[in-house]
Amino acid sequence: MTGTRHLVRLILRRDRVLLPIWVLLIAALPASYATTYAELYPSVAERAAYAATTAGNPSIVALLGPVYGDSVGALAAQRAGLLHLIVGLISLLVVVRHTRAEEEAGRRELLGATVLGRYAGLAAALLVTYAADLLLGLLVAGGLVATDLPAAGSLAFGLSVAFAGIAFATMGALAAQLTESAGGARGVGVGVLGAAYLLRLAGDAGATAWLSWLSPLGWAQRTRPYAGERWWPLALLAGLALLVGAVAFRLSVRRDLGAGVLPARLGPAAAGRALAGPWGLVWRLNRVALFGWTVGAAALGAVLGGAAEAAGDAVRGNEAAARLLERLGGSASVAEAYLGATLSITAIAAAGYGIQTALRMRTEEAGQRAEPVLATGVSRSWWLLSHLGFALLGPAVMLAVTGLVTGLAYGISVGDVAGKVPRLTGAALAQVPAVWVLVGLAVLLFGLLPRISVGAAWGALAACLLLGQLGAILDLSRWLLDLSPFTHTPQVLGGPVDATPLLALTATAAVLAAAGLATFRHRDVPT
């Protein structure tokens, strides 16, 4: 463990921007949900009717998890149920970034040549992530208590979020030992997380409730905040983290540095014609991620479309809730307003994929793989445009699939497939120009300020998420809301569509991307 303290300081310095952003952003959401439910459903009868409608719809339960009561706290805990998944994903990626990605970049070998213990690198990554998860859990609990919710239930929910993050952070540590690439480790970790979510989804939505007990996400939600708290599921999550962590530490010293426990599969002796240019290379680098994100978007669309009618029934008759949905989703129909609001959140996820794909250029540059490519006949402009093309087309594909599947599911539930599919597909595609603005911003940051491009691009996405989730609820100033490109997206489901904002957003994205290309062409590579 020698040198662990110094590596912890190094990680904290490297993540001094990203770490506070995601902790503070996520910590603010549960309290905002509690405040919203208290305002929209002030009476016990209204909350009971809402809880009964929610519990009776398998799609809503599958998406968010079960609701264990009709108190404000119980409803807010169910609404924030996806935080277990989100925090687990972030924690997993943070650990992979500071373990396997460090090895892949060669920095771990340089540090290992100093006075550094064999366990120090993995221990430092886990300690920082564990601390961030626990701090997040305490902030979540404190925010819920500040909204006059019971302390015991608030602490139970906050700790369930923290321990879910800890469990999947340790899964990320194990995944980092199995493969020899950071991308492979992320794929293994996200695959395990996705399997856990599907098990929880299948158990909560169907008659096979025992499936939820096979998922760490199911354990986290079985703490039952504000409904007779159970504390022992937290021990299951802690025990899983200890067990998986012990295996990860053992494997970390039994394998060669830079290698994985699972042997790498050899590729063909000669490259195919598809790899003759930068577009084929970029396709090869991004095809698995694009497929995974698109499949996830399709599954989400099916759940959202199936839950729309029930969501409309849950708020029908509550004028305040209906008005809030109309502000978020822009439709006179409550069910379609719900779909409009959820599609805007899906657009944030699509922007995440677009930013990730655009920032792959920085990963290639920092890993000294861009320079050999640019030393050939490939120009800087053509290399950047190949990455930019996938960063722009990928989110469009994701949103088109989401809108199509959402329209199918909703159309089947209301008996109007022919009318709902084009309507929902158009609503999803209307989000694309706003996504492109964030992609263009990422490209500009890569060209102009490459060293801070990763943190700044993801910070911009986090700010958009915060404004989108809390802006309408907190009634923030219009100038502040206008900072998010998603604020300017026309609500297709609300009536006639004005194409002017879409053209303006597309032009803004083009200007940002062009500026990024111009600055990249005139700076050193790598830098």
Strands, helices and their partners?
Elements: H1 4-14, H2 18-40, H3 44-55, H4 58-64, H5 72-79, H6 82-97, H7 100-105, H8 107-112, H9 120-146, H10 151-178, H11 182-205, H12 216-221, H13 232-254, H14 278-315, H15 319-329, H16 334-358, H17 360-366, H18 370-374, H19 380-414, H20 417-429, H21 432-448, H22 453-474, H23 478-481, H24 500-521
Describe, in plain words, how this protein is organized in 3D.
- This protein is mainly alpha-helical.
- Helices cover 75% and strands 0% of the residues.
- The protein has 24 helices and no strands.
- It has helices at 4-14, 18-40, 44-55, 58-64, 72-79, 82-97, 100-105, 107-112, 120-146, 151-178, 182-205, 216-221, 232-254, 278-315, 319-329, 334-358, 360-366, 370-374, 380-414, 417-429, 432-448, 453-474, 478-481, 500-521.
- Helix 1 (4-14) packs across helix 9 (120-146).
- The longest helix has 38 residues, at 278-315.
- It is globular.
- It starts with a helix and ends in a 6-residue tail after the last helix.
Main sheet characteristics: none
Helix % is over 70%
Q: What is the overall number of helices?
A: 24
* Percent of sequence in beta strands: under 5%
What coarse outline follows from CA principal-axis ratios? globular
List low-confidence stretches: none
Element-by-element helix/strand order: HHHHHHHHHHHHHHHHHHHHHHHH
Secondary structure: number of strands: 0
Evaluate the radius of gyration: 23 Å
State the end-to-end distance: 33 Å
By secondary-structure content and strand pairing, the structural class works out as mainly alpha
What's the mean pLDDT score? 84
